Each structure stands twice: as C-alpha cells, then as structure tokens.
Amino acid sequence: MFVQIATLLALLASSYGAVLPMGLEPLSPQSGRIVGGTKTTIADHPWQVSLQRSGSHYCGGSIISNTIIVTAAHCLLSPITASVLKVRAGSSYRSLGGSLVQVAAFRVHEEYRTNTKMNDIAVVRLKTKLTLSSTIKTIQLATSAPGHGAAASISGWGSTSYSGSSSSQLLYVDTRIVGRGECASSTYGYGGTIRETMICAAAANKDACQGDSGGPLVSGGQLVGVVSWGRQCALANYPGVYADVAALRQWLLAAQKTV
C-alpha cells in the first residue's frame, strides 16, 4: 500500500513541482482546505499567511518576525525558487486584500526526509518588512510541546470536506493535542511512523488537510506545530500530524538568522 501511495505521490510531485509526503494523501499544495472548518477573520489569526506560488495560494505559514515566515519543508522542495513565491498577510481572503510581499529566500531543514516526514519545517525570508498591525502579528515559538489533551486550533483556506470545493475565506477548527506516545500507540493507526520531531492533534470530523500544509497549530497562544501530514482527512483512527515546533525550535532560531 505504501508503495502504491509513494507512486501516486511521485506523480503528484511532478505535477506540483515538489515532493509531497505520504499520509493525509497527501497534504499537497494547490488544494488548500480545513475539514469541518468555521469561517473566521484574520484578526483572530493574525499570524496566518498564505504562501503563494505563481499567483496562487498553495500552502500556509506563520509570521514569527516582520521578515520571517515558518512553513513546511515539503512546500518548498525543488524546483520551487524564491522568485515565484509571494506571501499574502493581513487578509481573511487568500486571493485579495492585505499585503502581498515577494519572497527573497528560503531555507528547508537540511534533515527533512520525504519518506519519513521528519523535520518537515522551513523558514521564508521576505524581501520587504511586514508592517505589524491588528491583522498582521507575530506568534511566539513554543518552548515545550503541550500535554496530551491540551486545547489547540488550526487554520487555513479551503473546503470543509474531503475532496470538496475550496473556500476563499480563512477557516479554523478547534482540536486537541494527541501526545506523541499516544499518537504512536495502538489506539491509532500510525505506529512507528510517528517520530520525535512530530506532534499530533485530533477532533471528531475536524482536521487540517491538503493545502493547509505549512499552516499553524496553535495552543496557549504559541505556535506548537506546522501542518505536515496524515491519512486522508479527519479519519477517526488517524490524527493530523504536525512538525513539532518545540523540538525544532533551535533549528528555527538559527535558520532565521542565516536564510
């Protein structure tokens, strides 16, 4: 089964110009969506941005400084270059409003692995500074992962059902952290594919999904995860899987200075 999925992903990757991780089958660029989402405004999620390739939204991201965005590594793999990327910040809509800023450079975690999805994190440097406001704000990086069962939220643009139509307005869902040990246990279907740089979250009939890749998992007002992978969307036995920001914090702090 994994071989079949890998083959499908390779074909999708050639279409989208990036290697896509296995799991949420897949969390691919271009088809952004939150399953079970509720419409919201950017004022409630002012760190959220739309990462746009050649004029179209394809991944999410989070503002950690007026020039640095955190997103997923799998959103930025070759042959993607900074010249085709822009970030839209400060808008509830992915295609209009707010500030649209050219990307100057980006850095993907050097140990990101497409087969395991480990270290699925990257930083983007903007060509010009964002003007911080009520709709454009930074978010702090978590220093420790929240405990199992902690309240969290995810946000992004897109449809409210698997394979459904996309939404132009920002959506969010409330969810709960699933601890790494619990996520890798027999309670769920992932087993040993959950690694030390990952954190999970789940809620009935709610999840991040394709195109929400790179977007924020927020708990306690801090960025605790980056949308990474999973199996389909909102399946009861398969939580959404995120890059663990606390586990990758030191890399992020160093990378934003050198990107």
UniProtKB/TrEMBL annotation:
Subcellular location, record wording: Secreted, Extracellular space
UniProt key word Hydrolase: yes
A single cellular component GO annotation: extracellular region
Domain annotation Peptidase S1: ranges: 34-257
Signal sequence interval, chain numbering: 1-17
Keyword list, A-Z: Disulfide bond, Hydrolase, Protease, Secreted, Serine protease, Signal, Zymogen
Top-rank EC class of the record's enzyme: hydrolase
Transmembrane portions of the chain: none
GO biological process: proteolysis
Its EC number(s): 3.4.21.4
One GO molecular-function entry: serine-type endopeptidase activity
Any Pfam family the entry gives: Trypsin
Catalytic activity: Preferential cleavage: Arg-|-Xaa, Lys-|-Xaa
Membership in a protein family: Belongs to the peptidase S1 family.
Protein name: trypsin
Organism the protein comes from: Drosophila guanche (Fruit fly)
